[in-house]
Design a protein that fits this description.
Elements: E1 4-17, E2 20-33, E3 37-41, H1 48-55, E4 63-68, E5 71-72, H2 78-88, E6 89-92, H3 104-109, H4 119-132, H5 148-160, E7 166-170, H6 178-193, E8 198-202, H7 206-209, E9 214-219, E10 222-223
Parallel strand pairs: 3-8, 3-9, 6-7, 7-8
Antiparallel strand pairs: 1-2, 1-4, 4-5, 9-10
């Protein structure tokens, strides 16, 4: 049996507006094996992004337990969470979140500036990541000089440059045309199959979800199955 990299038990999350409780997730139970490509689908407001934020240690559950990559998340301080996140999590966002004043190379290098890697080691990591996403010839280009699909490839290179344990992708094809979306999904599938990356992807797109090994549905804060 594959190692389980995510274990959630009776996980619930509510937000509070003054005295009003707004429940978002209810009693989520989830096991994710190492190397799985999981797609989370569901209508807007179903709690998909909230669950992703919990998995990343950006947010904390209201009740229940969550263990990710061997750490019980509620036991970590903010500083420990930041260190843990830098080591274990690679993010891919819908709108790329690239720095417009930095080149593709510099955007991908950003997460490595928080590590103890030498400049030479950082260069090797960045060039490898950009090579994997097929943008070795675009590393000196700025985001404005790239297509949307190329920008998302840079964002994926940035997500994988530190060799994270988990890739968390929030609507990675949501801002792309059909062809670019297919190329991005092919790339994510390759990262899963060839590089054995565990990927958890939130998506509204059934075509994107088809690339995942497993699809789960969230509705009104509850997970199917």
């Amino acid at each position: 049996m594959a190692d389980i990299i995510v274990t959630a038990r009776n996980l619930s999350k509510s937000y509070y507006r003054e005295s009003l409780e707004i429940p978002v997730l209810h009693n989520i139970n989830l096991d994710i094996p190492n190397g799985q490509f999981l797609a989370l689908m569901g209508p807007s407001g179903s709690g998909k992004t909230t669950l992703l934020n919990l998995l990343a240690g950006i947010d904390q559950p209201t009740t229940g337990t969550l263990t990710v990559a061997g750490e019980e998340m509620s036991r970590l301080s903010d500083r420990e969470l930041a260190r843990w996140r830098a080591r274990h999590i690679g993010f891919v966002f819908q709108f790329y979140n690239l720095m417009p004043v930095l080149t593709a190379y510099e955007n991908v290098e950003l997460p490595l500036l928080l590590t103890h890697l030498s400049k030479k080691e950082r260069r090797q990591h960045v060039e490898t990541a950009l090579g994997i996403v097929g943008l070795s010839d675009r590393m000196r280009h700025y985001p404005r000089q790239l297509s949307g699909g190329q920008e998302q490839r840079v964002a994926i290179a940035r997500a994988i440059v530190s060799d994270p344990t988990l890739i968390l992708a929030d609507e990675p094809t949501g801002d792309l045309d059909k062809q670019s979306a297919e190329e991005i999904m092919t790339l994510l599938s390759r990262l899963n199959a060839e590089f054995k990356k565990t990927i958890i992807m939130v998506t509204h797109d059934p075509r994107a979800a088809e690339k995942a090994g497993l699809v789960r549905h969230l509705d009104k804060g509850e997970l199917d199955g």
